[in-house]
């Protein structure tokens, strides 16, 4: 049985699954239920200064696709709208009752050192295991010069991180916003400020959809809409890329990364770990199905690790990072060709039409007496994988790697006018 | 052997009858339709389309349902098959589109429910006020359509759409043909056949003339004189007989007549035997047997001379009969009728097979108050026998465009060769209409050219 115990920036938890700072971690009642369900930790929904913010009614918009709900979720909710003292008292009680679980407190106060100096001891007094600086909230708070407004300016990130490091003994995790052109800039700034870890991604600025009757962006609040923060399964690829970029950056080497962004099951979790995450934060999946989803995440990850012979999380964390390279380090001699398992083929024609209309005309079609027959024209196939992706039958179309004769990357490629010559 | 002759009306309370003859398979809800539509893979060159005699673009209409474009979905269906609503209800989809659905290659019997989705889309259309198609400017051309069944109606609608003036002649007082008089009531519940005809006729340019019997009150020769073209969709008006001398005793009926009576009457006024024997293995046999049961017959036995796999009714239909309490017996042929005082008492069957013969020594008797014959319908050529239209193998001969051997006369549906299916009849009528349209418009151009 794989050991899922996690030590992340000195913070211990029985498993790497934490609930991200969001509505599920807004108060004692929810957090207690989460811990009872088996979650390894929580990042308590962002605390701010009193008086608390006021949240709107109508807060979420969702993206569905072909019958599946919530592949993407967008929210316009702000930070905790409860008095600071209430949150503090509850955090203290929960941490005392669940000492083995990680309790991290998300914080966001204005960009003034005194404000941070004031709140840190109050949080520290709860016995919380660490703090996460919310430099990512992309709506509402950013318009008040907090959240993403800080996260988008590396100098501010460094400055506030440093204030926190200088004023608390708690580990400081800096939560990064993806709403930047280069994630390395704020990540490096966080490290320069002394951050113990980074977490990412926060939500992506988005308009989830337009209500065509109200003629307003969703969610519609009294006839109008605003942009929100986008999360859920659909953002996973963006998160994986940003996490990988930080994990492979030499200046960031060794910094713990808490992975966030559409993690919905054990497989997503394993992928985030492989790309460099040391702990995993989940929100949308829990908001969709409830806290019980953690059971299969723990069980599935553990079973997969057992199958692969990975004993500890450290064996998985970052395992794919060395193979996450810039495009020009890929072998241009590599070739893969689609292969259709004719016994598994159901004759839907999706591979053919996708290739015929939008790719390389590499799948032929013949109408047989019983069903249509589709065949790959090897010489035309560029190995793009599209057919395998559109095929509705698992493992019907496989991509078969061809024998490779050595390695040739773009920098050395004869077609490259700037090629490196000996 | 009992001596009671027991045929009666109103064996069941009216409320029960209403329930028994309500929609056999109620329509999908919006949620059900959305879920089912999302199952469709949206195949390219989809096998289901090929399996549909009318060639409805099935993936396209299902995609339209999935995107909540119901106007587009119903239009896609109706432009290929104007009777798409009744076909959605009566088509044996399990041997047509749904049999070819690629989902069945993943899991048997788990096709996308194409018929149910088609009904969902066409039902939406039936609740709209606007017709999805517009009649072209009048061409001044007149076409006579004989027979107001699916073939004739489909032909008339397409012709009317092209701007021709159509008169439909039918021996019944109301149009609809088999949809109105020949299909089990619970398949086209809530007066759907009539509603669909009203919808179809609302295109304009179609006149219905009931009580017109071809060869009697109206002749093909007359029609050819008064109209620019004629379409014959006259179906199969004859029924096969058992061939017994005493076949005309009370209680022995054609299943077709039994169903027609049922479809044209108040349910509580339809007489049905206490014990009913249905002879035959087709859809008419199943429709008659199940309806007899649902009218309140105590015992209904369907006897077929061959095995289950040979029945022309599909396995789905056969199971429908069985789950409705009809006993189905195979490999037995009628030997003779047992009668008493001019009424049927029972029927004796010999066991065997058509190939090896039926052994009179190996027989059994079923007591019956009513015997329904459903051993096949035949084309009766009498109405056109003076017209020298080529008939072969008991059906009117037509070319790929529905042309008969007589110029200007077209035919389609059950009276021509091919599958005896509503959906095939619709295709025949539609395609003949297109051919008639082409012919009429070409003639018109030539005339103009001559005049010029």
TrEMBL record, chain A:
Reactions mediated catalytically: 5,6-dihydrouracil + NAD(+) = uracil + NADH + H(+); 5,6-dihydrothymine + NAD(+) = thymine + NADH + H(+)
Record flagged with keyword Zinc: no
Q: Describe, as the record does, how this protein assembles with itself and its partners.
A: Heterotetramer of 2 PreA and 2 PreT subunits.
At the highest ranks, the source species' classification is:
Bacteria, Pseudomonadati, Pseudomonadota, Alphaproteobacteria, Acetobacterales
Q: Name one GO molecular function term.
A: iron-sulfur cluster binding
**Which SUPFAM superfamilies does the protein's record reference?**
4Fe-4S ferredoxins (SSF54862), FMN-linked oxidoreductases (SSF51395)
4Fe-4S ferredoxin-type domain spans which residues? 336-368, 372-402
User: What are the EC numbers?
Assistant: 1.3.1.1
The protein depicted here goes by the name dihydrouracil dehydrogenase (NAD(+))
Name the enzyme group at the top EC level: oxidoreductase
Q: What's the domain of life for this entry? A: Bacteria
**A GO-annotated cellular component:** cytoplasm
Originating organism: Gluconobacter thailandicus
Automatic annotation (TrEMBL), chain B:
Q: Which residues form the 4Fe-4S ferredoxin-type domain?
A: 31-61
Cross-referenced SUPFAM superfamilies: alpha-helical ferredoxin, Nucleotide-binding domain
Q: Which InterPro entries match?
A: 4Fe4S_Fe-S-bd, DPD_II, FAD/NAD-bd_sf, FAD/NAD-binding_dom, Helical_ferredxn
Q: What is this protein called?
A: Oxidoreductase
What is this organism's lineage?
Answer: Bacteria, Pseudomonadati, Pseudomonadota, Alphaproteobacteria, Acetobacterales
């Amino acid at each position: 049985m794989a050991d899922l115990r996690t030590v992340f920036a000195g913070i211990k938890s029985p498993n790497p699954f934490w609930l991200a700072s969001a509505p599920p971690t807004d108060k004692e009642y929810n957090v207690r239920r989460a811990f009872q369900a088996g979650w390894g930790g929580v990042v308590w929904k962002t605390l701010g200064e009193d008086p608390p913010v006021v949240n709107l009614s109508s807060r979420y918009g969702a993206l569905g696709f072909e019958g599946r709900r919530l592949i993407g979720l967008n929210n316009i909710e702000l930070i905790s709208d409860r008095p600071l003292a209430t949150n503090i008292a509850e955090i203290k009680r929960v941490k005392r009752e669940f000492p083995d679980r990680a309790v991290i407190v998300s914080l966001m106060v204005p960009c003034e050192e005194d404000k941070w100096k004031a709140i840190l001891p109050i949080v520290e007094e709860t016995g919380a295991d660490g703090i996460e600086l919310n430099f990512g909230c992309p709506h509402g708070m950013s318009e008040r010069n907090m959240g993403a407004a800080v996260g988008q300016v590396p100098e501010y990130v460094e400055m506030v991180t440093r204030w926190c490091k200088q004023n608390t003994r708690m580990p400081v995790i800096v939560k990064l916003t993806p709403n930047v052109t280069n994630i390395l800039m704020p990540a490096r700034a966080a490290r320069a400020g002394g951050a113990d870890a980074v977490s990412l991604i926060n939500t992506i600025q988005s308009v989830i959809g337009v209500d065509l009757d109200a003629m307003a962006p969703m969610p519609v609040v009294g006839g109008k809409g605003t942009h929100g923060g986008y999360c859920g399964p659909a953002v996973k690829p963006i998160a994986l890329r940003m996490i990988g970029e930080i994990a492979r950056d030499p200046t960031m080497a060794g910094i713990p990364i808490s992975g966030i962004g559409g993690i919905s099951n054990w497989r997503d979790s394993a992928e985030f770990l492989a790309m460099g995450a040391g702990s995993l934060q989940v929100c949308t999946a829990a908001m969709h199905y409830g806290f019980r989803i953690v059971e299969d995440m723990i069980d599935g990850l553990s079973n997969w690790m057992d199958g692969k012979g990975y004993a500890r999380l450290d064996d998985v964390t970052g395992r794919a990072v060395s193979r996450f390279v810039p495009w020009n380090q890929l072998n241009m001699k590599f070739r893969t060709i689609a292969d259709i398992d004719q016994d598994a083929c159901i004759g839907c024609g999706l591979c053919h039409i996708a290739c015929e209309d939008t790719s390389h005309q590499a799948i032929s079609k013949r109408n047989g007496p019983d069903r249509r027959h589709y065949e790959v024209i090897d010489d035309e196939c560029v190995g793009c994988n599209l057919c395998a992706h559109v095929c509705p039958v698992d493992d019907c179309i496989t991509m078969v790697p061809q024998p490779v004769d050595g390695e040739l990357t773009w920098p050395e490629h004869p077609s490259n006018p700037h090629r490196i010559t000996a | 052997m009992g001596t009671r002759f027991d045929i009666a009306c109103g064996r069941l309370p009216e409320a029960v009858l209403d329930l028994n003859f309500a929609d056999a398979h109620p329509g999908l809800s919006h949620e059900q339709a959305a879920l089912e539509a999302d199952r469709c893979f949206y195949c390219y060159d989809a096998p289901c389309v090929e399996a549909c005699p009318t060639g409805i673009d099935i993936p396209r209409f299902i995609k339209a349902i999935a995107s909540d474009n119901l106007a587009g979905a119903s239009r896609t269906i109706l432009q290929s098959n104007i009777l798409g609503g009744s076909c959605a209800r009566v088509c044996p989809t399990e041997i047509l589109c749904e049999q070819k659905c690629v989902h069945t290659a993943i899991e048997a019997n788990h096709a996308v429910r194409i018929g149910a989705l088609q009904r969902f889309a066409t039902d939406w259309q039936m609740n709209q006020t606007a017709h999805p198609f517009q009649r072209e400017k009048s061409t001044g051309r007149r076409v006579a359509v004989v027979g107001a069944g699916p073939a004739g109606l489909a032909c008339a609608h397409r012709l009317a759409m092209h701007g021709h003036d159509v008169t439909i002649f039918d021996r019944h007082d109301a149009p609809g043909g088999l949809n109105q008089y020949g299909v089990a009531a619970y398949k086209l519940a809530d007066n759907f056949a009539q509603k669909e005809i009203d919808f179809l006729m609302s295109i304009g340019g179609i006149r219905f003339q009931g009580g017109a019997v071809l060869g009697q009150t109206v002749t093909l020769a007359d029609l050819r004189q008064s109209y620019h073209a004629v379409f014959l969709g006259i179906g199969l008006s004859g029924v096969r007989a058992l061939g017994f001398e005493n076949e005309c005793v009370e209680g022995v009926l054609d299943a077709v007549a039994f169903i027609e009576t049922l479809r044209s009457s108040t349910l509580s006024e339809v007489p049905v035997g206490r014990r009913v024997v249905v002879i035959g293995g087709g859809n008419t046999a199943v429709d008659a047997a199940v309806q007899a049961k649902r009218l309140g017959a105590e015992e209904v036995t369907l006897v077929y001379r061959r095995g289950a796999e040979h029945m022309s009714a599909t396995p789905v239909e056969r199971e429908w009969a069985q789950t409705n309490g009809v006993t189905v017996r195979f490999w037995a042929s009628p030997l003779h009728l047992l009668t008493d005082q001019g009424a049927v008492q029972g029927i004796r069957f010999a066991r065997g097979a058509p190939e090896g013969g039926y052994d009179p020594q190996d027989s059994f008797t079923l007591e019956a108050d009513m015997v329904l014959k459903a051993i096949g319908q035949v084309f009766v050529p009498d109405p056109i026998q003076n017209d020298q239209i080529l008939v072969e193998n008991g059906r009117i001969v037509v070319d790929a465009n529905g042309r008969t051997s007589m110029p200007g006369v077209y035919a389609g549906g059950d009276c021509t060769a091919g599958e005896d299916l509503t959906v095939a009849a619709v295709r025949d009528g539609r395609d003949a209409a297109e051919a008639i349209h082409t012919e009429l418009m070409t003639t018109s151009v030539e005339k103009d050219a001559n005049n010029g």
